[in-house]
Amino acid sequence: MIYKVPVIPGDGIGPEIIAEGRKVLETAADKHGFDIEWIEYPLGADHYLRTGELVSEETLKELGRYRAIYLGAIGDPRVKPGVLEKGILLAMRFYFDQYINLRPVKLLEGVWTPLKDKGPKDIDFVVVRENTEDFYIGQGGRARSGRSHADLEVKRSLYNVKFGLDIDSDSDEIAYQIGMVSREGCTRVIKYAFDLAMERRKHVSSVDKANVLSDIYGFWREIFEDVGKSYPEVTTDFNFVDAITMWFVKNPEWFDVVVAPNMFGDIITDLGAMIQGGLGLAPGANLNPEGTSMFEPIHGSAPKYKGMNKINPIATIWAGAMLLEHLGEKEAAQDVVRAIELSLREGRVRTYDLGGSSTTSEVGDEIARLVRNL
Ligand code: IPM
Ligand code: MN
């Protein structure tokens, strides 16, 4: 069996961590009797600066022929913030309709957590982040008098809502961003969360801000309740996003599956990463169960560490295990996760973020060695 897997090393430290991910996945493949053929796509800052192209329709179509993409990181200080992130990373999440962003928050043995008196049995939940809607839809703008008529209308109506005023002086300028969620979009991701909970400890926590942003998140909450009715065995709770950041720190053991709209999911998973030992250990999967999914560490391209062979590759290797699992290679995936666990428990080979001085490639070598010997 040969799996063809597009790989996008990307920017900054992306190529270094992806190299280790490939190494470990190839080892697991070899051991379990299958092959991976990597198809490399050099998307990212260099490609953009050279050609002016982010990702072409043609490339997207090509990528869409595969079930899983392996991604390093996107983002580069030579390019204005947001251009590459929106033009490549978010473009792919949206194009492939990867509506589930699965982010496990699991403290492995041997890893230090900043949470006092909490251990691996307390920190083991999964965040299911909605990945295609909310404030990420890219609708918004700035409006100022004297620009187009439409701008002026938007501005007037928003000012009217806010202040009951009709303002059209030239000095006034506003910016606005529209968040949108759909019944279908919420239903499918919340349903995924409940299904996942059925395989775990049967508890789902919803995240919203229905007390203030009540149109958008009141709707989310309503749909959550609707979906929940079909899962009588699953217990639920509702959390305002501000409060859940507090509970993640104080009582992480309460959580099993946490389902969140896109932006809140983004925010709380950086916190989740910290309580599981740092961004160097946090993997993510952008899933479309019927289409093309994409696997990546949740951290960024860390440009200041580029080329130093210093960054922790474990988040990327772990994302690789999720990729194998997605392809149906469960035993190989399990071996990779077990090898990660073993390497952290033994603690001989660790990068600087975990208090060690090993290099990126030494960690990759060690995990590959453990996969082979398991
Ligand atoms: C993430 C990142 C992205 C996001 C950025 C880089 C667009 O923060 O994957 O969490 O906001 O989703
Ligand atoms: Mn993020």
TrEMBL record:
PROSITE patterns named in the record: IDH_IMDH (PS00470)
Alphabetically ordered keywords of this record: Manganese, Metal-binding, NAD, Oxidoreductase
Short name of any one Pfam family annotated for the protein: Iso_dh
Enzyme class, spelled out: oxidoreductase
Domain of life according to the entry: Archaea
Required cofactor names: Mn(2+); Mg(2+)
Name of the protein in question: 3-isopropylmalate dehydrogenase
Record PANTHER family: D-MALATE DEHYDROGENASE [DECARBOXYLATING]
Isopropylmalate dehydrogenase-like domain residues: 4-367
EC annotation from Swiss-Prot or TrEMBL: 1.1.1.85
Gene Ontology MF terms in the entry: 3-isopropylmalate dehydrogenase activity; magnesium ion binding; NAD binding
Keyword Ion transport among UniProt keywords: no
